Amino acid sequence: MTAFLQRLARNRLAAAGGAMLALIVLVALAVPLLPLQDPNATATAERFARPLSEGHLLGTDHLGRDLLSRLAHGTRLSLAMGFAAALIAAVLGSVLGIVAGFLGGRVDNVIMRGVDMLMGFPYVLLALAIVAALGPGLVNALIAVAAVNVPFFARNIRGVTVALAGREFVDAARLSGMGNLRIMAVEILPNVLPVIVIALTTTTGWMILETAGLSFLGLGSQPPQADLGSMLGEARAALISHPHVAVVPGVMIFLVVMSINLFGDGVRDALDPRLGAGALTRPLPATVVDRPAPPPLREPDPPALLAIDDLRTEFRLGRRVLPAVDGVSLSLGRGEAVGLVGESGSGKSVTALSVMRLVASPPGVIAGGAVRLDGEEVIGAPFEVLRALRGRRVAYVFQDPQATLHPLYRIGDQLAEAIRAHQPMGARAARVRALELLRDVRMPRPEDRIDDYPHQLSGGQRQRVGIAMALANNPDVIIADEPTTALDVTVQAQILALLERLRRERGLSILFITHDFGVVAQLCERLAVMYAGRIVEEGPTAEVLAAPAHPYTRRLIACVPEPGAGRRRLEAIPGLPPRLDALPPGCAFAPRCHRARPDCGAGDIPLRRAGARAVRCLHPETTP
Ligand SMILES: Nc1ncnc2c1ncn2[C@@H]1O[C@H](COP(=O)(O)OP(=O)(O)OP(=O)(O)O)[C@@H](O)[C@H]1O
Question: By alpha-carbon position, which residue is closest to atom 11 of ligand 1?
């Protein structure tokens, strides 16, 4: 709630709208207590008195009635009508929407077709027809405005409810024996409430206008009772000769509707959790780069195809800065597979995404370092160059292909689209190539599968499609971010074998991100271990696994169960990874390390290299 209010207050227009609305509502509530004249007392001798005339601050109307008093009473009535209509429409519409969306089937059909019929008429005509049938009057105008707005709420809320009704927490509620009514009240309603509030705040102003419109036509409030619409209607005849009589209610309608709309927009933005990080914009197409200057070219030995050099990527969240990647250097030779290992949150994915500037900005910023592909600097390259490299030279395979494949397109079409993004070719040729790719990744019965949608495939098959997508443009480097984590062990082994074969046959370089040493051992000749955004150990896989130098690496390896090794205690690493914005000085692992000494916390510890191995530790397990 506090976060919501803070976000709302940060939006200046919304705050101004809210303040004005609060003032108008307060004055409207206090009307009976204010020393105002009788709004209906006529004095024909004083008709059309100008504003600021004696006894009448805003002047008088055609019957000599005090405009200030009528404005105060009229605003009070219009606000009450508008709010009541909005509330009735919201309650009725939401109930209909939730029931239709949750129960589905015939109930949904009956309710929604009724709603569609209501929406089929222009709303003003519908409101006029309702008032004509019920007779003019305030209550009938209110019923009409509420009725024409029910469909808006019903449709919105039904859409949200349909999505919620299939979610696991609703299934869990059903399994626990809850009845439909209770599930709708306890599980669905709280989840659709923000949508109802948003719809309410953005439509209330509109409903005040509609009720004023009906009164303007003489179908709402009846003389002598004033509301803003009827005041405007009565002023119509003297619009040219005495414009102030129309301007006074007109300005008030403008102020009320504008303040409600500004406030409503602010509430909508503040309630949207996706805007929590202050990101009012969509992520930019490439991560923002804000670095002093790329470090001078340090050619690794042997020359690397992909060289990450002193990379720093941080998340800037208001005043907080999270250094997710803090000076990472890593190289990948042609045809080489390198594993990047570490606990969840150590910065592996952010490192991988930074290579092609794919970290979401805001809040991500590349704050230092360089990435070189075949010696060419990538981070500072113009966006067009970067876009040409993405997918064509460096491709990604992610953990969950379900999330990266479009659910509504056939996989063949998606593959063809990926191919045609970089290679101009006709639809038929692209389909032939897509089929080839599916064969390359050993998709069973590719001719049938090519026309399947992602949901028709198993997890392993989907990941094969993910790999086929990555191969679509014959890249040199594949960055695979936990591609086998969501798969069972046998499928995992097949996918690893596939990657290994592709590497051999195509000379692919693979950066393999995982937390599983078993996987690294199968695929990678070299590995780097990350902790709290830094590389703490690096070296040939076999050597590191046989004799880990950093205590963190040793503890990570000890967490992996070994089949056939007999009964053995699996040692969890005590404590939790540190918060990135509160890293201890010196070694970030020291507070969890059994070998830590006072000097570990004294200052920055460099990554010391010895031959092919490197370790960032003052008291390593073994000296490499
Ligand atoms: N959009 C973001 N905004 C703020 N912080 C972020 C964002 N994305 C990642 N982080 C932070 O950056 C750090 C590194 O995250 P990263 O995803 O690279 O970890 P990881 O090692 O790949 O973990 P996992 O194996 O769970 O994917 C984490 O502390 C994470 O909370």
Answer: 324
- Ligand 1 centre to CA of 533 (Å) is 9
Distance 347 CA to ligand 1 centre (A): 6
This model of the complex carries an ipTM of 0.95
Q: What is the mean pLDDT of residues 64-75?
A: 94
How many angstroms does the Cα of residue 396 sit away from the middle of ligand 1? Answer: 17
> How many angstroms separate the first and last alpha carbons of the chain?
54
Sequence-separated (6 or more) residues with CB below 8 Å from residue 219: 128, 131, 136, 140, 141
Q: How far apart are CA 146 and CA 207, in angstroms?
A: 8
User: What's the Rg (C-alpha) of the chain?
Assistant: 34
Contact in structure between 67 and 232 (CB atoms under 8 Å): no
Ligand 1 binding pocket, CB closer than 6 Å: 315, 322, 324, 342, 344-350, 360, 363, 515, 580
Domains and CATH numbers, the chain: 10-27+63-275 (1.10.3720.10)
Spatial distance between the Cα atoms of 545 and 413, rounded to a whole number of angstroms = 43
> pLDDT at position 276, please?
47
Q: What gap in Å lies between CA 439 and CA 441, rounded to an integer? A: 5
Name the residue among 332, 335, 293, 287 with its Cα closest to residue 314. 287
**If pLDDT is split at 50, 70 and 90, which confidence band does 278 have?**
very low
pLDDT at 565: 61
